[in-house]
From TrEMBL:
Domain Glyceraldehyde 3-phosphate dehydrogenase NAD(P) binding: 2-155
SUPFAM superfamilies for the chain: NAD(P)-binding Rossmann-fold domains
Gene Ontology MF annotations: NAD binding; oxidoreductase activity, acting on the aldehyde or oxo group of donors, NAD or NADP as acceptor
Coiled-coil parts of chain: none
Keyword annotations of the record: Oxidoreductase
Record protein name field: Glyceraldehyde 3-phosphate dehydrogenase NAD(P) binding domain-containing protein
One Pfam entry name: Gp_dh_N
Length: 210
């Protein structure tokens, strides 16, 4: 079974974990997140406000270094950089970078020198990847011998591109625009408060967005 590492254990990282738990496609070998509170990660996995309770509950090892589920021990790290993790020690084939941090994309190339075969990035970091793939739109363009750092693009593109591909093939699209409705993200305030980015105001997001 293919061995997968997850870098960035927010909503996307946990969703990948949950999908694999319900339909085992691969073995998760290691998880890295800048939040060092492993008990909090276990709780967020077990009880999700959107997806509900996890059927097979996750627990934490006594030494706080592993998440445990169904007899499996998954190594947990809390490092800032993706290449600070010894993925090769866990025989990791593919690392999924769901951190959303641009520097991790650039540093992903270091992993290829240490035994990791591919890195999949769950956002769109412009031209810093070998290829961007959207299932239903251009997955046939993937070349395994050339494409090693791969972007899955963004949610808006994944929602629209497969439909637009069909319309374009049948009718030929010459231009247009798309309006999307998006939920609040983790870095967007629901109430007034400080933000890391000085380019964004600290007001609650719906007021600012409107």
């Amino acid at each position: 079974m293919m061995k997968i590492g997850i870098n960035g254990f927010g909503r996307i990282g946990r969703a990948i974990f949950r999908i694999n738990e319900s339909t085992p496609l691969f073995e998760i070998t290691a998880i890295n997140d800048i939040d060092p509170l492993i008990e909090n990660h276990a709780y967020l996995l077990n009880y999700d406000s959107i997806y509900g309770s996890l059927e097979n509950k996750v627990s934490v090892s006594k030494d706080n270094h592993f998440l445990k589920i169904d007899g499996q021990r998954i190594a947990f790290y809390s490092k800032e950089k993706i290449d600070d993790i010894p993925w090769e020690n866990h025989n990791t084939d593919i690392v999924i970078d769901s951190s959303g941090i641009y520097d991790n994309v650039v540093n992903s190339y270091n992993l290829l020198k240490r035994g990791v075969h591919k890195v999949i990035v769950t956002h769109s970091p412009n031209d810093s990847v070998d290829h961007t793939i959207i299932i239903g739109a251009n997955e046939k363009s993937f070349n395994s011998s050339k494409h090693h750092i791969i972007s899955s693009s963004i949610c808006d593109a994944n929602a629209c591109a497969p439909i637009l591909k069909i319309i374009n093939e049948e009718l030929c699209i010459t231009g247009g625009f798309i309006t999307t409705l998006h939920p609040w993200l983790g870095y967007q305030n629901l109430l007034d408060g400080s933000l890391r980015s000085v380019s964004s105001p600290g007001h609650y997001w719906s007021d600012f967005a409107l």
